[in-house]
Amino acid sequence: MADPTPLKQSTFKRNGHINYFLRCLRALPTAAQGSDSNRITAAFFCISALDLLGALYEKTSEEQRKGWIEWVWSLQAPTGGFRGSTFMTTLNDKTSPAHIPSTYTALMTLAILRAPLDLLDIPGLTRFLRSCQAKDGSFSPVPGDEVYPNEGFQSDVRISYCTSVISDIIGDFSGMDVDKSTEFIERCKTWEGAYASRPGVIEAQGGTTYCSLAALSILHKHAQAPSPESQDTLRWLISRQIGGFQGRPGKLEDVCYSFWCGGAMSILGHSTLINREADRSFLLSAQFPLGGFGKEPEDYPDPFHSYLALAALSLTHSGTEDGDNAGLGLKELDVIWNVSRETADWLRGEIGRVNGKSRS
Questions:
Q1: Which of 16, 23, 212, 300 has its CA 20 to 30 A from that of 204?
Q2: Residue 10: Cβ within 10 Å count
Q3: Residue range 170-194, pLDDT digits in tens
Q4: pLDDT at residue 32 above 80?
Q5: Residue 291's closest CA among 25, 97, 79, 110?
Q6: Where in the numbering of this chain does the Prenyltransferase alpha-alpha toroid domain appear (predicted)?
């Protein structure tokens, strides 16, 4: 009988991954088409992946990139911030508001494409962020009202993270009450040492732990919030590695948690504690033969897991200086902003130019 155990892959399928993301930019896989209302985030996964692979300018035309830039700008709401898709645009701004995660991915996409940011409505953006903050310090993805207040089920640390990064990008924290934001995130820390999505949620999770640590790191650096350093958090993160990483105790490995948990360890300054060989082996085993990464080995790929697999590999295997890194050729990742360091550096300079121009 044939051995049913799948063959482990050890070769990084760089060309396959490039072609996968190029295909997704032309047409999303069927499984991802339900996310059309947040198309900008899918575009970010694909364009940022090509950036990390060093293939964006090699494999796309100037005409394509200009078209993407125009499309992203078309998503900027008149009141500030960015919508997730043209699908979400109506004649009434109240029924098609901007969306915080979409604003984060729109800004990053414009930066990757090296689009001048003179059209960015920074005053409108800070007003939009303020309109999304609740009394408990959390943020809702869109402005609340009497029917749907800001303290909704989606008002969790993921949105706090996006708001912190947006504020960090524009160098303006007036769109958030920093003290309340910090207190909200700190109240999400559970008895396990990691972070849940909201206060009172008992179980911590890898993704919300990354978002909490990244947000606290930004607020500590720019707004004198407490440092996120914590030995019990680090202990929890280390315990999540079982080859690849699981999202919480008792779960199987999942490609995305190699980034969420590995990124959180990097934020705490302890990426060397990751078992790089075991994590790389798991990630490469989740590659699809035609490119992209599934959630786990033998799963079909999707843009979300495919991008985060590359981000995870970039954290621990970027460069080509030694045998362990040879063959990947990934750019270094800015772990806080989750974009290539090269793009993050460009974005800081571009915002400095725009802010300097507005003051002159």
A1: 300
A2: 10
A3: 999 999 999 999 999 999 999 999 9
A4: no
A5: 25
A6: 12-338
Is residue 357 a contact partner of residue 351, using CB atoms and an 8 Å limit? no
Residues 78-95: what's their mean pLDDT? 75
pLDDT of residue 10: 72
Give the integer Cα–Cα distance in Å for 81 and 124. Answer: 7
Read off the tokens for 277. 């060989």
- Token pair for 321: 């200086």
The answer, yes or no, to whether residue 12 has pLDDT greater than 60, is yes
- Tokens standing for residue 44: 């970010």
The helix/strand/coil state of 187 is coil
Residue 76's pLDDT is what? 95
Q: Note the pLDDT of residue 191.
A: 92
What does the pLDDT average to over 149-162? 80
Predicted confidence at residue 48, as pLDDT, reads 98
| Alpha helices, H only, the chain | 14-26, 39-52, 56-59, 62-74, 100-112, 122-132, 157-170, 178-186, 206-223, 231-238, 255-267, 276-285, 303-317, 341-359
Contact assessment for residue 291 and residue 55, using Cβ atoms and an 8 Å cutoff = no
Instruction: Map residue 55 onto helix, strand or coil.
Output: coil
Structure token digits, residue 49: 């992946």
pLDDT of 4 above 50? no
Strand, helix or coil for residue 111: helix
How many CB atoms are closer than 10 A to CB 86? 13
Find where tokens 């978002």 sit. 211
CB atoms within 10 A of CB 58: 9
pTM: 0.92
Cβ neighbours of 33 (radius 10 Å): 11
For 42-66, how does the pLDDT look when each residue is reduced to its tens digit (9 = 90+)?
999 999 999 999 999 999 999 999 9
- Distance between CA atoms of 156 and 134, rounded to whole angstroms? 11
| Burial profile 261-282: b = 16 or more Cβ within 10 angstroms, e = fewer | bbbbbbbbeebeebbbeebbeb
Dihedral (CA of 34, 40, 44, 47) sign: positive
